Amino acid sequence: MMLVNLPVADVERSRRFFADLGYAFDDRFSGEKAVTLVLGENQFAMLLQREAFDALHPLETADAAKVKECVVCLGVDSRDAVDALVNRAIAAGGTDGDSEDHGSMYGRSYNDLDGHSWQIFWADDMA
Fold it and tell me: Fewer CB within 10 Å, N or C, the chain?
């Protein structure tokens, strides 16, 4: 199981954004201060209201709009799926990020509404 915790300014706004991208949620672990985004089988991102995220650790939380704290990298089944997901993110209010095309590996990234970077990639298993 993989669970990534990310701070967000507005849980409901984040839920709407990721719903627009086609993601599902696990409402058993969601509420006013958090929503659990299903990324894949046994892979989740817990989007936590900033104050709830801050309570998880003793350090200052990075402002993702100013400092890159991490890049969440997710694989998809095709080059077209990369473009479709990133284009939906941009249409939903995210910002376009970097792209890479190495023939047998292709990726693009976007920043969500809270500035977190998401890299979506496809790799040819036969290469």
Answer: N
